[in-house]
């Protein structure tokens, strides 16, 4: 391995060999400190790093992302967690630093999807963050630096094979980016669109007020969308993404997917979920699977047997009315869309999951219908004028 090229085991699939990453000029901005990252690992790592770097710059808070298949399963900045959220994220037994808090929230957004994630961290990795990473199922981590003790903790993960990448935080890529598909080279200017509080100035609804907490969530949502496979919608709440709908061909399907994940995130904090009678010594991934099945509608009997084996006694499921009652207490959720929202059905679905603030580019011929829907529900909606597609 040179400082200009990194040989990989294979590409997207094992039969795609040879594979490598390289810098056409200069040197690579990354240093592999441990393990052997793969092709998809590095795509996740470099996208995730851009996301947390921009969050850090925009919100001036430690930031973290949990990436899977070149989209964030979760992203967050370091803001306090309630006791219920801490328990739902399985971190109530840990003493968390600000950076560890950010990763716990990013990982907790969608723990099912974050299984085997690539973690990105905006700041030097400290010991509390390394201890949190050590006990989660994760493929690797990228950060601008590592405390010596934290690095040794992570090097011991996965039998010594955990992938650890240090990135130069001062690195700036060239203005033009290229990629090749089927022998054809594409070239475009990099997406230098800046997302921060200044992008929230054009509130187009009757409701104009954007509380400080909502402003943080709307900026967070936009930056997450900037590095999420399009089409995409994400819901944010209290400094973290709680639902992401990425890569769908229809925007309403993005919205439904993101909102369903957000509902699931809120339901994980229901007292009956927090107190599920899991069998002793059950690992966290199995608990995540058990919670997911517990929150589903009744399963066929063949699946029910395996599901019930996770518990010391059969738990009573939440009824539809109980779910609605629990979800009804949550509001102040923010929603971001990477491109214009073409129909009000997206708003009609979003309001059911507590969405009160919306940010989108605008520019649809049907903008007024979407504005009318927001006005009907008392939502505030911002038009940015900037599309954030990412492919």
Q: Enumerate the spans where pLDDT stays under 50 for 5 or more consecutive residues.
A: none
Order of helices and strands: EEEHEEHHEHEHEEEHEEHHHHHEHEHE
Query: How many helical elements?
Result: 13
Task: Assign an overall shape.
Answer: globular
The CATH topology name of the largest domain reads Cytidine Deaminase, domain 2
Quote the average pLDDT.
Answer: 94
The number of E-state strands comes to 15
Question: What structural category characterises the helix and strand content?
Answer: alpha/beta
Question: Helicity level, as a percent range?
Answer: 25-40%
* CATH architecture descriptor text of the largest domain: 3-Layer(aba) Sandwich
Number of domains: 3
User: Span from first to last CA?
Assistant: 29 Å
Radius of gyration: 21 Å
Strand order of the largest sheet: 3-8-7-6-4-5
Strand content: 15-25%
Topology:
Blueprint: E1 5-8, E2 19-22, E3 30-34, H1 39-59, E4 63-68, E5 71-77, H2 83-88, H3 98-108, E6 117-121, H4 127-135, E7 138-143, H5 148-155, E8 163-167, E9 176-181, E10 184-189, H6 212-226, E11 232-237, E12 240-246, H7 251-267, H8 271-274, H9 284-295, H10 301-308, H11 320-327, E13 333-337, H12 345-351, E14 355-360, H13 367-377, E15 380-383
Helix pairs in contact: 1-6, 3-4, 4-5, 7-12, 12-13
């Amino acid at each position: 391995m040179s400082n200009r090229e990194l040989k990989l085991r294979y590409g997207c699939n094992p039969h795609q060999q040879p594979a490598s990453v390289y810098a056409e000029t200069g040197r690579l901005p990354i240093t592999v400190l441990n393990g052997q990252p793969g092709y998809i690992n590095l795509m996740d790592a470099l996208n995730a790093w851009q996301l947390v770097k921009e969050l850090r710059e925009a919100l001036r808070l430690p930031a973290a992302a949990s990436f899977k298949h070149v989209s964030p399963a979760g992203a967050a900045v370091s803001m306090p967690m309630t006791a219920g959220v801490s328990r739902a994220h399985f971190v109530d037994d840990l003493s968390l630093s600000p950076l560890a808090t950010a990763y716990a929230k990013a990982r907790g957004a969608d723990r099912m999807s974050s299984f085997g994630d690539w973690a990105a961290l905006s700041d030097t990795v400290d010991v509390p963050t390394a201890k949190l990473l050590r006990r989660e199922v994760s493929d690797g981590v990228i950060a601008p630096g590592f405390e010596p003790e934290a690095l040794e903790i992570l090097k011991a993960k996965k039998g010594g094979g955990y992938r650890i990448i240090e990135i130069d935080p001062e690195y700036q890529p060239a203005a033009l980016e290229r990629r090749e598909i089927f022998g054809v080279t594409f070239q475009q200017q990099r997406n230098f669109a800046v997302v921060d509080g200044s992008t929230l100035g054009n509130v187009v609804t009757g409701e104009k007020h954007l509380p400080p907490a909502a402003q943080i969530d709307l900026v967070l949502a936009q930056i997450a969308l900037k590095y999420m496979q399009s089409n995409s919608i994400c819901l944010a709440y209290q400094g973290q993404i709680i639902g992401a709908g990425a890569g769908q061909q229809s925007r309403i399907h993005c919205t439904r997917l993101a909102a369903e994940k957000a509902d699931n995130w809120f339901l994980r904090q229901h007292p009956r979920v927090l107190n599920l009678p899991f069998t002793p010594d059950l690992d966290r991934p199995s608990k995540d699977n058990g919670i997911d099945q517990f929150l589903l509608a009744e399963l066929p009997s063949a699946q029910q047997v395996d599901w019930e084996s996770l518990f010391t006694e059969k738990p009573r499921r939440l009824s539809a009315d109980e779910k609605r009652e629990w979800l009804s207490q949550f509001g102040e959720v923010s929603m971001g869309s990477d491109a214009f929202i073409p129909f009000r059905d997206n708003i009609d679905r979003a309001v059911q999951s507590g969405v009160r603030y919306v940010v989108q580019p605008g520019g649809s011929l049907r903008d007024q219908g979407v504005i009318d829907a927001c006005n009907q529900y008392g939502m505030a909606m911002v038009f940015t004028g900037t599309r954030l597609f990412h492919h």
